[in-house]
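Sanity check

After download, print the first record. It should look like this:
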Amino acid sequence: MADWLTEIASWDKRSQAKVDRLLEREGIRRDGNLDYTCGIFDEDGALAATGSCFGNTIRCLAVSSDRQGEGLLNQVVSHLMEVQSSRGNTHVFLYTKCQSARFFGDLGFYEVARVDGRLVFMENRRTGFADYCARLAQTRREGVSAAVVMNANPFTKGHLHLVERAAAENDTVHLFVLSEEAGPIPFAVRRRLVREGVAHLPGVICHDSGPYIISAATFPSYFLQDADAVVEAHARLDLTVFGKIAAALGVTRRYVGEEPVSRVTASYNRIMAEHLPELGVECRIIPRLTEGDRIISASTVRKAIQDGALEAVLDMLPPATAAYFTSPEAAPVIDAIRREKNVIHH
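Expected structure tokens:
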């Protein structure tokens, strides 16, 4: 009986345990964000190879050390690409260790950016990132340009304060809203509330981040040793990609909000402040907006919504955001926030 490749359902605890054991043997931890997993089993039921998807990314690829060199990983990747195609995803991404990048290059993936010694970010379109930068370059303006990147989950007066500060100090602000669906508030809603919230600032140009600015929620951590290594690698990858985006737009400053609560975000800001100047971009960390002894943050707003105390935080929201959350349209989003296990980012 030959090897057989099959989907491994989330309820199949026995096979899922085999996936975990294989990943661990190959020095990989299961990623927290997976929505499809497959495996190649031998005639005795032993798992020889595995791979997974999340959204339009391929993750958690591993082959048993005693079966390497047999083309199993090629079979897994081919199968996962078929899964992606069935989902309508023609633009696919993966993250891999540096030593594996050449192998994936042979399978039709192209390097977007790398963090030497850590990881390589790849896509299946030869000019995908170059085309993205070319489209951005069409919005380039004369004068001093800055950039702001935000999830805006939801858009608060704190976010608005950051954008207004950048707009006051620069001729143009390129505002990127993370496109990934990584939280209870849909991207379409987040984007709309940001655009309505900054409509009074003529120097602000809003952009979808697309797949090239990766949020902490979906950054792959499965082949990194610890939380600090994850933050470091995420920041370095972000900076490498952002440096190319900044060059396309003529951006010389990036504005970020000071982070007094989240250790992860504070570390991320520190790494950006240290390394962005190497790319010709100044990092300006702006103190958080406060009202009395309250720090205005999206986490605080989400927690209040979860607790049924929206009225207590309406003064933290710009008019468009407040109007949305007090309208019937927001009911499904409010329900989704209330179902979240953890709405506070640490």
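If your output differs, re-run the checksum step. Summary of this record's structure: The chain has three domains: 1-90, 91-126, 135-339.
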